[in-house]
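Hi everyone,

Forwarding the result from last night's run.
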Amino acid sequence: MASEWCIGIIGGSGLYAMEGIEDAQWIAIDTPWGEPSDEILCGRIGEVKVRFLPRHGRGHPISPTELNSRANIDALKRAGCTDILAVSAVGSLREELEPGRFAVVEQFIDRTVQRHSTFFTSGFVTHVSMADPACPRLSEMAAKAVAKAKGKVAVGATYLAIEGPQFSTRAESRMYREWGADVIGMTAMPEAKLAREAELPYALIGMITDYDCWRDGEAVDVAQVVAQMQANGALAHAMVKNFIAALPKKRAASPIDTTLDDAIITAPDEHDPAVMAKLDAVAGRLFR
């Protein structure tokens, strides 16, 4: 496995560009799954290779429900990424998680219904474990990076992913609180699932922009979200720089690097060559 870091940064709402990347070049990457959200900004921060992808595209032209997460994760894998640090705007389902605070996500509840959620189809059936969907190593480093930037950070959050693009009803928001969710968003699923299938350790930092509508008399609106996103922007950039700067010189192997070793269930003589051809980036190491 790679001993050098190559960090894929997925920028969510409000993080459409990445400051401080040297030798930066936007590169278009073709995938068998269609077009990713945008070109990938390739370069380095210090000695660390960085690949930045704005999740909604520059200028936010792509709706959450129409994101091609398969293409995004495949493109980052093709670009050489070893790990992914994702940043996303989220709403709060807890009083103590106030707007402006960052939340390191540990668990996910997936309520999306219209999105392709796997790379693996009939002909190469695979079941990866999602018991612990976020990489603990990256998550710990991300939390420290926020704290070093003088930001408020909460750890161990559970993220509720809704389909969108509408915000929740008040009844839904209160139900999600009863389920044990802490923050709510529209984009981290199936992104996190696909990262795991691609054997890419994944951590998610949620930038809290608002209280979701579980509070009496409050409702989420875009103006409120955008204003807080802009306020969060400088801290998000500082967090990423701190995260990169604190990486160990050498990347020690992660158990997630070999997730697929125990996940494939289709017998070898039933493997579909056409399906396998589309998996050349995601699972190519298994075919070499």
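The longest strand covers residues 83-92.

Cheers,
N.
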